[in-house]
Design goal:
Helix content is 24%, strand content 25%. The protein is α/β, with parallel strands linked by helices and 332 residues long. The structure holds iron/sulfur cluster (SF4). The site of iron/sulfur cluster has 12 residues, from loops.
């Protein structure tokens, strides 16, 4: 496949300035960005991972995680390699920071596979960071949208505002990580900054369905006061945004013990003061059903990665509360 020229950069002589993400790399010919997947080749910036698929599965939508977007559905989930953050605990470091094998699948071909995939509602761009796979995500999402498929992003939100604004009209749902409500954590643990991520959450909430994930790492971002401020901030965008608190397990460069279960449940209690829907991830046997914030009626039943909606529209049938839930149309 022909190399794809990058979007969102300018040239100053033969030096490229990439504006795709807040790193804003300045790249002389032959240089590659922090993400490892955008390179100045002879005075033109190219996407090196365009159409390179390093991970490919048909997953339950709950696995993204998206709990309020077509519960019980499946979605073709693809990822490439490269990332613009370097989180010490990265669960997907083999593709984010390694050199995995990949298969080339063009946008048209991927959309056709998604249409043929059994029960899939569309395409999720996930596993590695889709922001640094921008051109492929953009080209594929355009075709997928034309064909009536759903486009889902699972992202760290570390993307420039103009680039995100251009992509969001194609996107139906997004799960954005807020890794901590703490700038020094972003700097030390992830090699990034918090503010652009918060801006991405706020911007996305104006365009599509949004859920947020925070990985709780014992002692690093589990402080109740910090979590309280995070919950308050998210509720300021929309208290009906589902928040996923995910339990940390050792991975990549981080070998401290897994986050304690009582820390996870305490974090959930803090968040529930601010938000209507708070879930715990990476913990077996926890109650992750959706309950009506008005009357407590059970609305979606979840078991592992399965989800069954118990209501047929976006209102609680018991008390009439409006629910932030996108449901599959009933087949006729
Ligand atoms: S997308 Fe990559 S090359 Fe562009 S600014 Fe971000 S890290 Fe640098």
């Amino acid at each position: 496949m022909k190399q794809r020229q990058a979007m969102h950069y300018t040239m100053d002589g033969d030096t490229a300035r990439c504006f795709l993400c807040p790193h804003k790399c300045v790249l002389k010919p032959g240089q590659t960005g922090i993400c490892r997947v955008r390179k100045n080749i002879g005075g033109t910036l190219y996407s090196l991972n365009y159409a390179h698929i390093a991970a490919y599965n048909i997953d339950p939508i709950e696995k993204k995680p998206l709990y309020h977007f077509y519960p019980g559905s499946r979605i073709l989930s693809v990822g490439s390699y490269g990332c613009n953050l370097k989180c010490s605990f990265c669960q997907n470091h083999a593709i984010a920071h390694g050199n995995p094998g990949s298969t080339v699948i063009g946008p048209q071909d991927l959309v056709e596979r998604a249409q043929e995939a059994d029960g899939s509602i569309g395409i999720a761009y996930t596993y590695n960071e889709p922001s640094v796979w921008y051109e492929y995500v953009f080209d594929t999402a355009c075709i997928a949208k034309e064909r009536g498929l759903k486009n889902v992003l699972v992202t760290n939100g570390y993307i420039d505002e103009a680039a995100l604004r251009q992509l969001l009209p194609l996107i139906d749902a997004v799960n954005i990580d807020i890794k901590a409500f703490n700038g020094s954590y972003y700097k030390k643990v992830c090699s990034g900054t918090l503010l652009p991520v918060l801006e991405a959450v706020r911007l996305a909430a104006g365009y599509c369905h949004v859920e947020v994930t925070t990985l709780i790492v014992e002692g690093l971002n589990s402080n109740p006061n910090e979590l309280d401020r995070l919950g308050e901030w998210v509720s300021g965008v929309d208290k009906r945004i589902p928040l996923h608190l995910s339990r940390y397990f050792p991975a990549y460069l981080m070998d401290s013990p897994p986050t304690r279960l009582d820390t996870m449940t305490a974090a959930r209690e803090v968040m529930k003061k601010h938000l209507d829907y708070v879930y715990i991830g990476n913990v077996a046997g926890v109650d992750n059903n959706t309950y009506c914030p008005g009357c407590g009626a059970k609305l979606v039943e979840r078991n592992g990665y399965g989800g069954i909606a118990l209501i047929e529209n976006k209102k609680c049938e018991k008390c009439g509360e409006s629910i932030n839930l996108i449901l599959k149309m009933k087949e006729k």
